[in-house]
Amino acid sequence: MITEPPGRPFLVIASAVTLLVFFWASYPFWHLESLLLTIFAGWVLWVYWLFRLGLAALNVSIAARLWRWLLPGFLAVAALLVLVTDAPFRVRFAVSKPSLEAYVKTVAENPERAHPCQWAGSYYACRPRPYSEEGPARNSVWFQVQDPLFGDDGGFLWMPSGEPVETMEERFRHLGGPWYGTVFTSSG
User: Fold this and answer.
1) Are 63 and 110 contained in the same domain?
2) Residue 145 counted as domain residue
3) The domain containing residue 29 runs over which residues?
4) Residue 136 contacts residue 150 (beta carbons within 8 Å)
5) Strand partners, 156
6) 125 shares a domain with 64
7) Cα 5 to chain center, whole Å?
8) Is pLDDT above 80 for 187?
9) The pLDDT value given to residue 136
10) How far apart are CA 105 and CA 35, in angstroms?
11) How many domains are contained in the chain?
């Protein structure tokens, strides 16, 4: 059994870890915690797979089922390519963009009104407010998106004119057009 290629349980666990990593990668910024968990889980799965491969190579010929032995490696390489190209974020943001635009336009029309947390596309948007450097930027909307595991220290800034100014507490990532991804390192 241990000399057989990793079967369904291994592939199910590896797939679940990969999907969780893709979910975390679909936010504007990675959390340190998610990065560390990704590295740890990937390392554990990789070591387990190499251990099984080593035992099998000592006891049986792995050439007969080579494709099953190589499948986890191919999946890992494919997952790394997906992450390097930022595909989870790009896809989720593109799918959510029309709803996000409707959300920010609603908030921009009446910024003084309290807006409850709500789904804007596939992001759960909360606490919208005008972006302010030295006073609110005209028609800008800054809001947090909630990650069920790590809270809501990231979000989006919609700023149709001007550019945000990075500080020690705030980092921005230009996403195209008036959109910026942001990390809040203070409760601001």
Assistant:
1) no
2) yes
3) 8-85
4) no
5) 143, 181
6) no
7) 31
8) no
9) 56
10) 33
11) 2
- d(C-alpha 155, C-alpha 147), whole Å: 10
User: At which residue do the structure tokens 């889980």 appear?
Assistant: 41
Residue 3 included in any domain: no
Read off the pTM: 0.78
Do residues 161 and 138 lie in contact, with contact meaning Cβ atoms separated by under 8 Å? yes
Distances from the Cα of 118 to the Cα of 33, 87, 121, 123, 145, angstroms: 25, 24, 9, 8, 10
What's 75-120 look like in SS3? HHHHHHHHHHCCHHHHHHHHHHHHHHHHHHHHHHHCCCCCCCCEEE
Element (H, E) at 153: strand 151-158
Residue 116 pLDDT > 60, yes or no?
Answer: yes
| Residues 16 and 68 both lie in one domain | yes
Classify residue 43 by its DSSP letter.
H
| pLDDT range class, residue 131, cuts 50, 70, 90 | confident
Q: What is the dihedral of CA 98, 100, 106, 110, to 10 degrees?
A: -150
Neighbouring C-alpha atoms within 13 Å toward the C-beta of 3? 10
Judge contact between 27 and 145, C-beta under 8 A. yes
Single-letter amino acid code for the residue at 104: V
Measured distance CA(11)–CA(68) in Å, rounded:
11
